[in-house]
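Batch manifest, entry 17 of 40.
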Amino acid sequence: MGLLTNRVERNEIKAGDHIYTYRAVFAYSHHGIFVGGSKVVHFNRVEASASSDVAEEISDLSSSCPTFPDCGFKLPNSGVVLSCLDCFIRNGSLYIFEYGVSPSVFLTKVRGGTCTTAVSDPSEMVIHRAMYLLQNGFGNYDVFQNNCEDFALYCKTGLVTVDRLGVGSSGQASSVVGAPLAALLSSPLKFLIPSPVGIATVTAGMYCMSRYATDIGVRSDVVKVAVEELAVKLGSRSSNEIVEHEAYNRGTAS
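Output type: structure tokens
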């Protein structure tokens, strides 16, 4: 795997791999678990208020696939979807997410959402988690706290954050937050480091370190949770959120 790209060909991936492809001219990446048989299990938003990009994702998956009749299968009100590799990639390229990379390799990856220092579990366990969540859901989609990369990371490692199960491990989301944070923290240094190159170097270093600090492989606030237990907890939390939302709507309508 190269330092600049994790691009692979279709014949190079195997069941249990965490794969991704870019959307909207490399604006963001969409992640999933390849389960074999040209099928991918991945996680999308299901709310009607989804953004245009996500709404397009859902619309494309719900349309009829000319190759696989079960492409686009998902349970009602669940964002976990089974699709064929063609529909997952669309017209994009295929990339593989790296696991067990060294800290030095992790820091050389300029873009988040491409690798982790965490070690993957065996492929059989990865596929089991993905297929189990296809039948039981992965909670409510949140672009920063519970997205497609979080889903794939959990399937590969079984790791979730302690404070809120199943969320907050996405390197892609960490990059979105880390870049402006690094710029903010480095701005006072412009008075000490007059060189623009020096400021850029410091900002880049802070950005990389903020990404590394939030990597699921080095965080201290993660635990291993069985998929059966996770599905129960996420289902209970989703039900409570629905009840609270309906109660709020009734209160504002009265």
